[in-house]
Amino acid sequence: MSTAPTVAQNALWQELNNKFVMFFLEGQYSEAAKVAEDALKIAEKSFDPDHPDVATSLNNLASVYYAQRRYAEAEPLHKRSLVIREKVRGPNHADVAQSLNNLAELYRVQGKYAEAEPLYERALAIYEKVLGPNNTEVAIVCENMAACYKKVGKEKEAEELEARAREIRSRRYDKRGKRRIF
Predict the structure, then answer these.
(1) DSSP state, residue 168
(2) 3-class secondary structure, 158
(3) Of 28, 55, 89, 125, whose CB count within 10 A is highest?
């Protein structure tokens, strides 16, 4: 493993990640998984084990496994990504919040609500602190947490989170439905 990646290694890793995003957004999950697996191999060979690009590669592969309902394979990848991001970025970084939300979503879809709730709460607190209370990432976590709360009978809390998410999203558009530029 090289601790100083070459320009070519960085370019290849970035190219693979760009392909991953394209395939993932198009719903071509098998192709996205192959590319994400290749990107992770490149990252693990080229960068330190705790490099942010390794965490990104882990997160990407976990996300496509999640989309394919390969939850048992996604979980350790999300956990490892979270550990790296906390170590490298610190406990209150937006990347950490992303990992927390992703892991919480994984738990929620599996019915592991007690495990998901504290992760959502922490992700929400980080995003509010780092990005501000009206950021769309805050809205996303509110929506996800609301879905979790509904499953455990916290209807009032879920409704409050959904209302907050709608309010955040409504600020992005004017009365004619046109996107505002901030």
Answers:
(1) H
(2) helix
(3) 55
Amino acid in position 122: R
SS3 state of residue 172: coil
In order along its 182 residues, the chain shows pLDDT tens digits of: 444 668 888 899 999 999 999 999 999 999 999 999 999 999 999 999 999 999 999 999 999 999 999 999 999 999 999 999 999 999 999 999 999 999 999 999 999 999 999 999 999 999 999 999 999 999 999 999 999 999 999 999 999 999 999 999 998 765 555 555 44
CATH number for 90-182 (one of 1.25.40.10, 1.10.150.130, 1.20.1560.10, 2.60.40.10): it is: 1.25.40.10
